[in-house]
Prior knowledge:
By secondary structure, the chain is mainly beta. It contains three helices and twelve strands. The protein has helices at residues 64-69, 161-166, 184-197, and strands spanning 8-17, 23-28, 40-43, 46-54, 57-62, 80-85, 104-114, 117-123, 137-140, 143-151, 154-159, 177-182. The longest helix has 14 residues, at 184-197. 31% of the residues are buried.
Amino acid sequence: MFKGIITNIGTVIDITTGSNSNQIFYIKAQNLLSVHQGDSVACSGVCLTVVDIINDVLKVQVSQETMKVSNLSTWKVGKKMNLEQAMKLSDRIDGHLVQGHVDKTVQILAINQNLDSHEIKLSCPEELIKFIAKKGSVTLDGVSLTINSVTDREFAVNIIPYTWKNTTFQYNKVGDYLNLEVDMVARYLDQLIRHQYN
């Protein structure tokens, strides 16, 4: 479980393919405290298990299913990513509860500067827009954000200067795809209602 509060930006330094066709990423990450083999780390919103650590490089293995629903298939050497270690139950939750289970990707339609902040407008898959509520929570590339507005199959979020400078949003451009995780409470409520009325 995570909070959606980014503590580090990592860089992909190598990519290989495992014997079972899973992708293996080597991510250089400084200042990640007390990461051990077997720990969970959210890499741009995707919960991955650290299978090995070599100095300040994390080795993570990614299944084909995760590659299909996330933007990891576009990762290349040099790719920057948001990193967050799994939270402790005693932690203060500054963002919101995030599982690291990406639902799908959303495409950036526009990036507009609004004073010191940036507003990002995104398209949303039709089946997921019902989980996107104004003033609700959403996770984009692992970052906990508040939804500013929702229209049809689009929504917008506002990125304050601190978040812009300390996450990978500073590297994004129109047309990029971000990993989306909808609010887990909304997902479970939808499942409950569907079972109740079916």
